[in-house]
């Protein structure tokens, strides 16, 4: 067994782990990342692409924003198409000048990986049998295997940035954590295509046939989604069937101008709301998807991971520079308030925009048609009043990060 040492052991090289590692390294806080799969595999995942101002600022602070600033697009608004009628949520006007950045998570990850490689920071990709040890003591460590060699990484802290299926959350004994979950009765079928986006801004569509979303990665690459039953398989959806159904769900002026083409990626993702409390035990901190999942409807997954990173990074800095002893013990409490705000918004957006078929009425102790009238009236109220639109816009651009 080979022994190595660092200050912060980071499990997982997704956006959470890489961003935390970069910020810490910039302040001389040594860290090592242990990742289960290869770097190419990490970059092969297609994820969302809307960045809140808080994340944009954090990427700039981390010194990894050059390409984002050159190639990303600022979006001052987005549309909600409600049974064919379009409402523009003017983010800029409704939030005193705020906006979001359209730049793919894959690109953020690539920029962070390149920056980490430039700094020569150590990352153990394709590691096996990662085990967290002694997290409730002053001397935690991580055991893992890499290229046939067994390692023991001794550290001061462990950041569990290893996503929903990682090992970190499960290292907190069951009796010391509580989990909150809502699994939605449908999935999102996503398609990526090298076609110009149907509009300059995103369109979230509520229709009789279910939800659809028109998004993009650049002026030449589009990302579209359709709500589909969980029983559907990707093979059930030829490109032609996808485009036809998308046209059915887009507002007619967009359906008429939609440019179609071959898909370069097609996948179905389930939708889930999930929170683990607390987000820490001893010297282990859960960051990003390892602690919480949101349905993608509010574009909050990556952004919530970023606010966790900002909070943990701020607290670790205070602790390492001697400003506040045990500052990191405040992590979970600080992070969870914002986590639940984003969870609630993503849940609300999902409830408003999807078709729940027969499920929802029963779950709310009323017949389906009564439930549908309530939901219709609720969304109608929010969309047709400025106060309502403000509530949506304020949350979409992202609530402020807590003061550390
Ligand atoms: N050991 C080491 N690494 C692991 C382990 C393990 N046992 N299990 C999982 N991992 C790695 C995964 O391979 C993945 O690369 O941890 C990484 C977690 O990355 P993400 O799932 O991307 O999670 P996170 O970095 O928190 O990113 C936040 O925002 O848009 C959302 O869900 C989306 O990925 C996104 C997230
Ligand atoms: C995406 O572009 O993939 C995307 C954008 C906004 C969302 C979800 C996904 O709410």
Provide a descriptive summary of the structure in words.
- The chain has 404 residues and is of the alpha/beta class.
- It has a domain at 2-75 and 98-181 and 271-357: FAD/NAD(P)-binding domain (3-Layer(bba) Sandwich).
- Helix content is 36%, strand content 28%.
- An eight-stranded mixed sheet has the order 7-6-15-16-17-14-18-21. Strands 9-3-2-13-20-19 form a six-stranded mixed sheet, covered by helices on one side.
- The protein is globular and about 60 Å long.
- The model has no long low-confidence stretch (mean pLDDT 96).
- Residues 48-50, 202, 215, 223, 296-297, 299 line the site of P-hydroxybenzoic acid.
The CATH architecture name of the domain at 2-75 and 98-181 and 271-357 reads 3-Layer(bba) Sandwich
Structural class: alpha/beta
Give the CATH topology of the domain at 2-75 and 98-181 and 271-357: FAD/NAD(P)-binding domain
Number of helices: 13
Which percent range fits the helix content?
25-40%
Q: What proportion of the residues form beta strands (DSSP E)?
A: 25-35%
Count every beta strand, where a strand is a DSSP E run of 2 or more residues. 21
| Silhouette | globular
**What compounds are bound to the protein?**
adenosine-5-diphosphoribose, P-hydroxybenzoic acid
Mean pLDDT: 96
Output the CATH class name of the domain at 2-75 and 98-181 and 271-357: Alpha Beta
CATH superfamily of the domain at 2-75 and 98-181 and 271-357: FAD/NAD(P)-binding domain
Largest sheet: 8 strands, mixed
Poorly predicted segments: none
């Amino acid at each position: 067994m080979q022994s190595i040492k660092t200050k912060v052991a980071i499990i997982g090289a997704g956006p959470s782990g890489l961003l935390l590692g970069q910020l810490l390294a910039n302040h001389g806080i040594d860290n090592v990342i242990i990742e289960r799969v290869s770097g190419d595999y990490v970059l092969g995942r297609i994820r969302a692409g809307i960045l809140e101002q808080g994340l944009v600022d954090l990427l700039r602070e981390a010194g990894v924003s050059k390409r984002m600033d050159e190639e990303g697009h600022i979006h001052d608004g987005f549309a909600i198409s409600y049974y064919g009628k379009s409402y523009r949520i003017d983010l800029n006007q409704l939030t005193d000048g705020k906006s979001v950045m359209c730049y793919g998570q894959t690109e953020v990850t690539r920029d962070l990986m390149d920056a980490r490689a430039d700094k020569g920071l150590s990352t153990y990709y394709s590691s096996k049998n990662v085990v967290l040890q002694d997290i409730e003591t002053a001397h935690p460590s991580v055991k893992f295997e890499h290229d046939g060699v067994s390692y023991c990484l001794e550290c001061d802290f462990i950041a569990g940035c290893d996503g929903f299926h990682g090992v970190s959350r499960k290292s907190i004994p069951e009796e010391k954590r509580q989990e909150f979950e809502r699994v939605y009765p449908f999935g999102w079928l996503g398609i990526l295509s090298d076609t110009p986006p149907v509009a300059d801004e995103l369109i979230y569509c509520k229709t009789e046939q279910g939800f659809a979303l028109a998004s993009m990665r650049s002026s030449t690459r589009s990302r579209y989604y359709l709500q589909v039953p969980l029983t559907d398989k990707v093979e059930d959806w030829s490109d032609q069937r996808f485009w036809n159904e998308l046209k059915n769900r887009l507002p007619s002026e967009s359906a008429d101008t939609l440019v179609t083409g071959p898909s370069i990626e097609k996948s179905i993702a389930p939708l889930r709301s999930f929170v683990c409390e607390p987000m820490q035990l001893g010297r282990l901190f859960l960051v990003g998807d390892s602690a919480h999942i949101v349905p993608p409807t509010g574009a909050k997954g990556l952004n919530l991971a970023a606010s966790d990173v900002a909070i943990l990074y701020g607290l670790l800095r205070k602790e390492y520079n001697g400003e506040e002893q045990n500052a990191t013990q405040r992590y979970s409490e600080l992070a969870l308030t914002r986590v639940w705000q984003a969870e609630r918004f993503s849940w609300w957006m999902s409830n408003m925009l999807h078709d729940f078929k027969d499920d929802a009425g029963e779950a709310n102790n009323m017949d389906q048609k009564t439930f549908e009238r309530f939901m219709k009236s609720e969304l109608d109220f929010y969309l047709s009043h400025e106060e309502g639109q403000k509530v949506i816009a304020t949350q979409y651009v992202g609530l402020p990060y807590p003061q550390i």
